[in-house]
Specification:
Elements lengths: L1 H21 L2 H4 L12 E6 L3 H11 L6 E8 L9 E6 L6 H18 L4 E5 L7 H18 L2 E5 L3 H7 L3 E5 L2 E6 L1 H5 L2 H8 L7
Parallel strand pairs: 1-2, 2-3, 4-5
Antiparallel strand pairs: 6-7
Length: about 200
């Protein structure tokens, strides 16, 4: 009985392994991918295999072909990617992270579908952890470079603003109080006083 049980277990494990290998996106997906178009390619998606599929697309896509996007996958199913952002969220019932990622995908697809000259972003870093914020920033810069668009960005995460922008406009109670390069603006005593208080400003 012991040998029979061991053989049955081995057969089940081998069958399971064969089924998983047969469904491997890196094997299954590439033959069905179209040739890269002359323009841009935006990838959006969701599901437990979304990260694997995103990685498979990246591996297949030429480095000189514009590629960006965002996919949502189940917690602990994420994979490292370079050009397509991967967000882990609850599955099958969505949580806040999944809902936020879905909204971002919709906004990105809508914005880029019209080949804009200007992309407006409103606090897109809200609710993201540092790693996700870094990936989102990479995606935004990738879109800017690939599509040659100007970005007008409203954001409260100063670390992102300092590293991602060329010019900053600061508003206080709806009025502009400063404009210029990020380092110059953030060292302005008026800005420090407005956001941190008078005791931090050096006039």
């Amino acid at each position: 009985m012991g040998d029979l049980a061991a053989q049955a277990k081995r057969l089940l494990l081998e069958s399971f392994g064969a089924a998983v290998a047969a469904a491997d996106p890196t094997v299954v997906l590439p033959p069905h991918l179209p040739p890269p178009p002359r323009g841009r390619t935006l990838v959006v998606g969701g599901g437990k295999a979304a990260a694997s599929m995103a990685a498979a697309v990246e591996a297949r896509w030429p480095l000189d072909a514009p590629l960006s996007g965002l996919v949502v996958t189940r917690y602990r199913h994420g994979l490292p990617t370079r050009r397509i952002e991967v967000v882990e969220a609850s599955h099958p019932l969505p949580d806040g992270r999944g809902e936020l990622a879905a909204l971002r995908m919709l906004e990105l697809a809508r914005a880029l579908a019209t080949t804009p000259k200007l992309l407006l972003l409103d606090e897109v870093m809200a609710g993201l952890n540092p790693a996700e914020a870094s990936r989102a920033l990479d995606m935004i810069w990738s879109a800017q470079e690939q599509f040659a668009i100007t970005i007008l960005w409203i954001e409260h995460v100063m670390k992102i603003i300092m590293n991602a922008t060329q010019r900053v406009v600061v508003l206080q109670y709806g009025k502009k109080i400063a404009e210029g390069p990020p380092r110059e603006v953030t060292s302005d005593p008026k800005i420090i006083e407005a956001y941190l208080g008078a005791k931090y400003a050096r006039h």
